[in-house]
Each structure stands twice: as C-alpha cells, then as structure tokens.
Amino acid sequence: MKLAYTRAMVNAVLSGELERAPMVTHPVFGLSMPTAVAGVPSDVLDPRKTWKDGAAYDAQAKKLAGMFAKNIEKFPGLDAMVIASGPKA
Length: 89
Prior knowledge:
Elements: H1 3-15, H2 17-20, E1 23-25, E2 32-34, H3 42-45, H4 54-72, H5 80-84
Antiparallel strand pairs: 1-2
C-alpha cells in the first residue's frame, strides 16, 4: 500500500472523517470497512479487490476463518458473544 494512502487513512481517523464514512461489512470477518476515504482509491479499501484473483482471496479468507474456528476450540467456556464475533467460515 502506498504511504500516501496510509497517511490519508490516518488523517481520516484523526479528523473524525472515518467515523462519518460509508461502511460495508466484510462477509467473512464481520469487520466494518469504509467504502470512501479522501485520497484513497476505493479498490484499496476492499481487501478482496487488492488481489488479482478474487476467488483466491475468498478461499484464503475462508481458510483463515476455519483456522480461527479450530483455534477457538482450545478455549472452552468462552462467552457465546465472543465466539459469535469471530469470522464466519
């Protein structure tokens, strides 16, 4: 990622712009992602669009979500809310 984009995102956080930015939810990880930040191309804001092969991104995201689900099993007794906040495989 270009340093100029990183700076623009940090500036958006510090100025409060990011709080007002339109957001979408990542389908696997459930994280809010801005769709517009001044000085940053929208394709950079969507991690899937940074991959040349979207299907490869999807496969890797699903794999990572599965790894999370397997790892969380090591912690029995976790609150259901914590477990539900994790990625969806």
